[in-house]
Amino acid sequence: MPNAKLCERFRGFYPVVIDIETSGFDPKLNAILEIAAITLKMNEEGWLEPDESLQFNVNPFTDAILEPTALAFNGIDPANPLRDAVDEKIALEEIFKIVRTGIKANGCNRAVIVAHNAHFDHSFLMTAAERVGIKRNPFHPFATFDTASLSGLVFGQTVLAKACEIAQIPFDHKQAHSALYDTEKTAILFCEIVNRFKRLGGWPLVMANSPADIELNEA
User: Fold this and answer.
1) What burial class does residue 129 get, using C-beta atoms within 10 Å of its C-beta: 0-12 exposed, 13-18 middle, 19+ buried?
2) Which residue in 33, 60, 71, 118 is deepest, having the highest Cβ count within 10 Å?
3) Strand, coil or helix: 22
4) Longest dimension (CA), the chain
5) What is the mean pLDDT of residues 25-43?
6) 122 a catalytic residue
7) What pTM was computed for the model?
């Protein structure tokens, strides 16, 4: 059976790996401080691999709540002028632009977020897009691919660093909680999960004969 195209592998979805660092847990009250996106591609042999990447440091929106515990956790100083930060509308518009290009180039219908604990990143992305008035959001409004759940199934680990360790993907804890670094590792991890399923013979799908077919063939 020939190797599937990217659009055939995920029922028309275009997977895009996202990681967002924030100033808290509430997407309506807390700000996006960093966002990174990596698109994926399928090579000629049908293996999934990372493609383009894009990263932005982001200015907090007006009146956003900056939780000290969140800033201490991710080590981000929103007031640091060396961050070269942009407003969230600029960051989202640039990311959405390359995503829409990828959707069209691969014959897909719409994008789907791939992320570790994907509900968190999805909620911040969708809320921010609505807040800044972006109407052409290429991402599915609720569907995601969550690498935490997938890693729990495949590797028995749901923490990104531990899942990477089991998958033999090098992970530097000192660089963790940088949006770009975590996105890179999540992209590699997701590709490994998808490709491992292919290596095990699970893709392309080969439908097993039903009991009725077996009886018919033996008759």
Assistant:
1) buried
2) 33
3) strand
4) 78
5) 98
6) no
7) 0.92
